[in-house]
User: What shape does this take?
Amino acid sequence: MVVTVAGMSSPISFLSDFGRQDEFVGVVHGVVAKLAPESNVIDVTHEIGRGDVLAGALAMTRAIQYLPDGVALMVVDPGVGSERKALALETSWGFFVGPDNGLMSPAVALVGGATRIVTIENPEVMIPSPGATFHGRDVFAPVAALLASGQATLDQLGPEVGGDDLTPLLLPLSETKDGVVSGKCWWIDRFGNVETNVGPDDLVAVGAVPGTEVTVQIGATSHQIAWATSYSDVAEGEALIHVDSAGLVALAVNGGSAAEKFRLHDGVAVSFASG
Assistant: This one.
């Protein structure tokens, strides 16, 4: 039996690739409500592409500094039911719960790293199930609820593992050579804005200046695009580059979709140069 420890219920920030068509998100909410009815669940997003670990990791990394301390419940788990570990991590921000597939690593690093990591192995903290394909419901949700409500400690979940055992996520880095910054499209939001892995300092380092045009290479085509502050700095239908809310260089179109205009998707190479 899990022993209750002192402490108030903490919020649970929930991210997944479950979508909203099926009952999966609602079921996870239900499990949390049964075990930790005083814990507020914040739905970060459930529209991560199916099994897209990188997209899920980047979404939580963008969000974590704006979320209240508590528990991050992260379920993008293409390896569910395999030998990949189920983990609970303690950080200065709070707890992270999810699969050991790199999903949690960037956000954990952003908040200063994990102070303790355990593998979730205690059957008393899990929901019995005949199948092994819904660990979001059967493993991660109950553990997140028990940690958030103070009904369990890490020691009660399973054995501790070393920090080096956490699977990292290799994030593509931009490269600068001969006055050109080469990067990739990282994320496309629902408005068609395209975030890259290039920072504004990278552009300044190759001589680009805010308020002027930047040479943007997409495939075999070169474009002259204004480096603007807001969408309204250019005419409707015109493209711009700007520093987005995550502090990265993004391509946008005033009143339109940069993804559609330039036929961009995640992983496409893009480069920037002065003028």
